[in-house]
Amino acid sequence: MTVPDRRYVIIFGCPDRTGIVARIATFLADAGGWIVEAAYHTDPDTGWFFTRQEVLAGSLPYGIAELRNRFGAVAGQLAVQSDWSITDTAERRRVVILVSKEGHCLYDLLGRVASGELDVDVSAVVGNHPDLAEVTRAHRIPFHHVPFPAGDPEEKAAAFGQLRQLVEASRPHAIVLARFMQILPTELCAQWTGRALNIHHSFLPSFVGARPYHQAHRRGVKLIGATCHYVTAELDAGPIVEQDVIRVGHGDSIADLVRKGRDIEKVVLARGLRWHLENRILVHGNKTVVF
Amino acid sequence: MTVPDRRYVIIFGCPDRTGIVARIATFLADAGGWIVEAAYHTDPDTGWFFTRQEVLAGSLPYGIAELRNRFGAVAGQLAVQSDWSITDTAERRRVVILVSKEGHCLYDLLGRVASGELDVDVSAVVGNHPDLAEVTRAHRIPFHHVPFPAGDPEEKAAAFGQLRQLVEASRPHAIVLARFMQILPTELCAQWTGRALNIHHSFLPSFVGARPYHQAHRRGVKLIGATCHYVTAELDAGPIVEQDVIRVGHGDSIADLVRKGRDIEKVVLARGLRWHLENRILVHGNKTVVF
Amino acid sequence: MTVPDRRYVIIFGCPDRTGIVARIATFLADAGGWIVEAAYHTDPDTGWFFTRQEVLAGSLPYGIAELRNRFGAVAGQLAVQSDWSITDTAERRRVVILVSKEGHCLYDLLGRVASGELDVDVSAVVGNHPDLAEVTRAHRIPFHHVPFPAGDPEEKAAAFGQLRQLVEASRPHAIVLARFMQILPTELCAQWTGRALNIHHSFLPSFVGARPYHQAHRRGVKLIGATCHYVTAELDAGPIVEQDVIRVGHGDSIADLVRKGRDIEKVVLARGLRWHLENRILVHGNKTVVF
Amino acid sequence: MTVPDRRYVIIFGCPDRTGIVARIATFLADAGGWIVEAAYHTDPDTGWFFTRQEVLAGSLPYGIAELRNRFGAVAGQLAVQSDWSITDTAERRRVVILVSKEGHCLYDLLGRVASGELDVDVSAVVGNHPDLAEVTRAHRIPFHHVPFPAGDPEEKAAAFGQLRQLVEASRPHAIVLARFMQILPTELCAQWTGRALNIHHSFLPSFVGARPYHQAHRRGVKLIGATCHYVTAELDAGPIVEQDVIRVGHGDSIADLVRKGRDIEKVVLARGLRWHLENRILVHGNKTVVF
After folding, report:
1. Helix axis angle, D254-277 relative to A254-277, nearest 10°?
2. pLDDT average, residue stretch D44-56
3. Which of A136, B59, C169, D226 makes an SS bond possible with D264, Cβ 3.0 to 4.6 Å?
């Protein structure tokens, strides 16, 4: 693995008007900033402009704090209302993974981390079942078992409180629901807005909720899919990040759908997580721009 | 185009038990029948057995009438309740196509017919708008314009009556709704059961009903699809024959989805129609076996 | 079909350096130019920078001639050596299509033109066989039959001379080899560089040359493909524009590969032609940037 | 994981003639055999007939030894020359995996084994580098490091001798070259015929040999692929078992191709291995039938 050049990633969005690109590009050019990657999009429905730019850190005469200061002034000139952020690719990303019993997404993510493909710190894995403790610890990652008793709302609330503490302890850039089979309470969804990624084992909006492969089998679809989306309070209805499908036929049992679907779930979640950590995903309303 | 060998296509279904394959295969072998293609499936949920066999017509010492006689006796021995049919690939298939204004599926089907890829007689094209009359007639196929006045239920019923007559006149093997934008009345659905194929411009069961690309755009999906299904009384809920998808992104407008989707609609409909005319599709409940 | 807003499409390439985007964007912003779409790329191997920008024609205070004048000055400041062009989406594109006997790509393109999806003038279709004359003329497009006698090099050269004249007569933006089964002589390749698009019925670089489906069948591949590429003097070795594949299996005969492959050929060629006519393809060495 | 019903898998091939299916099916029916899955194919080029049948073990009145005895007699009646085998799904499959430094395929396979998806014994992992020892041993699987010194042919031959011993020690049903970067000598290829599966990181027959992603990048293809094939003496030219592709673009560096390609390599190898262990692959000449 070669270490890629350190970069600052600028994300900016505001109501579209003439001259935004010119203003930002000139600001960067005046400072000697070398733009390595740039992408633009305007949403025609809302008239909102989006850009993402990667600048070589070493090409600027100042650091990220000063870049933020100066870019903030530019942003203020461009629009009264704007969304922007600047991140440093040298800052190591922290990820917390939530699991239940199904391990394929966890195995896949840990394999990517171990082989260096996914260059992040997995701060912790939290499971509402203990099944995946051993594989997690074999990767020298802390595993926390937080049981979620069925039935008693108070005990469930306490479990979510514990989950929240364990997650927040590492201030993660991403909270990955890797086939985590508990529905997050509204306040956790709100608190983790834009950071919590779920993998749903269907091609949304088809087959929301429980046992989507059973639903797919009953309907007789000829392709099954998986969807990576940001978690929101409404179940399986958050902004879609990535989807993919695989062909099935009349000879495939539900068990076959489950098995074939896993390969799609794994790659869809891994792609979504990578894009999220590279700050490639801009959420706008209930949709995503993926640069 | 070489003419393929003439074949008899045997479709048979009954409750599964030991010895069905042996009985049918022995019956054919005893007559010298050369099996060119054979497929089997048992649905584990219902315990129903399905088979499709293609036999070289010239390998049998008798014709299709006698084959039906004799096979009927075999079928009666195998099960009290069975579904079966024997068709002759030399019998030319007749197709009626229903259209509205969108022409891409019609152009595609007519091109396949003209180039000999789809070796069928298109008996007629019926449109509730006159837009596609010219292209149809350029292919020397009769075009009938049956206007469907909005609002008046009696006039609409009369129009459907006229449509029915035009369709039935050629006793078609397939009635293809090639982006026909009228909902068939229940009695027509019933009468055309297993013969009427629709192309819906979404990946069903997502986005049933009107303007599915608009729905898909609003939801922000990352793939759009098309579904070929048999028409039933419940809108867009009939047995699915074939589906496919194509990737879209945040930069795609609704017009882009419409354009990209057309290429999927065309091939999905053409594949579904081919399989239907080759007697490859066995409907069982609300699902299909595609051999 | 709604008419899209008239746009000027700016293509620019030069050795990468700091400030190119700023200079171009500022030039456009100063004139009030509204950028509707913008894309950038730098090839790390050659250090060459590419951009494509769509500007609303009505947002500029002057026409395309003056835009070219002024942009030329900007380009001169940015680099000693640069490639650039500015085209007007209101200028109707002219296309000449070359065919032999196989009609599926021609049918497909003519259907797209007739339905308004592909908004171009097909100036002429030229065939070395007469088979596709009728369908062409049914679309009210001139068809020219130019026979290519096997064997005699002089007669062949004369035929290519006639072909060249017929093609050049309409000064086409694109020359589409829609399954044209003659190898263009080197001087025609040179003269039509960057304008002649071929569809090859394999996933290049596999199965160059004659009868690629036969080659694919012999090798036992599990997917077959099609490749749209610019024509160069070396057979099937020009810059690749677009490719796609479809799954095949042991049950598929060569005839099945031919039939399944057609659906891929059609869409791959149609996509490549659309991108070419929208000035989305930038050729660099033997590779393409597709914006 | 539910344990699937124990089955006997019958593979049979011989020159095609009338009555083969009848003979086999009658033989099974007479013994009360319940056929769970059946597939047939005849290769039109060679006139060779293939079938694969899964029979519920419990439905037969005798065991596998007697089934082999009796089926052998049937096979002898059907053809002078035939290939057949009968295997028992209850016999646990043994797999040896060969690796070098790239770990993604190994991680993927071990994850599938650990989660129970791939229900096999990995008897050993042998690496010509020690890099993947730790992950292997974390799964409680023996890892053997066999260094292959560059240059000295005698030392290399000795290393291959050691490799052979380590592999043969467990009499494996499959020898998986999971990105093993040494070319097997001809005699090992011969000895492991039909058991050694390789994953090649290109869409064969494109980009045979070393550094296929570099070759693909240079050629400017728009899709990259992976191929699982049986190992033969000719490099990357053995019978193809499975292939798949993924889309790439001008913005993808070689490192991006390597990363994106991994996801294809993993699933293509896993699918090929599953089919091999389920006795679904019949090799005929240099092609495969995959039932």
Report:
1. 170
2. 95
3. D226
